[in-house]
């Protein structure tokens, strides 16, 4: 999880750099490439997964809702800083385009000090000691056996579950309608008016 987030931040910094240099290079194609790279990044699902897994059970719902909050906050800050009086002027718009790299840079610098998610360490790596160490680092000293037991129950449940590849998921008849729904909702989210709001 953590490595994937770090790689994703590198992608965002490269995308921001490409968009920021588009005016110097006099290339609108660089903006298109940068925006495509931003779209390909996995920020939102990775944030949900990592933050949900490192949070104590009683704060998990709150932690998962931070993604929506920061997404809305980012849109609002983008709209405000895009005004002509701020970064929306003829000379400063490349800085506005490159500003998406700033949160990625902050996360790239701070994330190495955070541990890997405890469920990932225990369920996928089989590292029980690493899991306990990560739990103590995240949640402090104390008795965390209930959380360890929950992770072990989830691991036992996962043993009986078949993991599907993307191609197998697309071919599976039982998930067809759910897949259609997700694709339609994701593809049309830009048409819902949130940008105008």
Low-confidence stretches: none
**What's the total number of strands?**
0
Structural class: mainly alpha
Please describe the biggest sheet, giving its number of strands, its sense, and whether it closes into a barrel. Answer: none
Shape: globular
Provide the β-strand percentage band: under 5%
Offer a few descriptive terms:
mainly alpha; 197 residues; 2 domains; 71% helix
Describe the structure.
- The radius of gyration is 20 Å and the shape is globular.
- It has helices spanning 2-20, 22-25, 28-40, 43-54, 60-81, 93-98, 101-110, 118-124, 128-139, 145-159, 166-171, 176-188.
- The protein has 197 residues and is mainly alpha-helical.
- 15% of the residues are buried.
- It has two domains: 1-114; 162-196.
- It starts with a helix and ends in a 9-residue tail after the last helix.
- Helix 1 (2-20) runs antiparallel to helix 4.
Give the helix/strand layout.
Layout: H1 2-20, H2 22-25, H3 28-40, H4 43-54, H5 60-81, H6 93-98, H7 101-110, H8 118-124, H9 128-139, H10 145-159, H11 166-171, H12 176-188
How would you concisely characterize the structure shown here?
Helix content is 71%, strand content 0%.
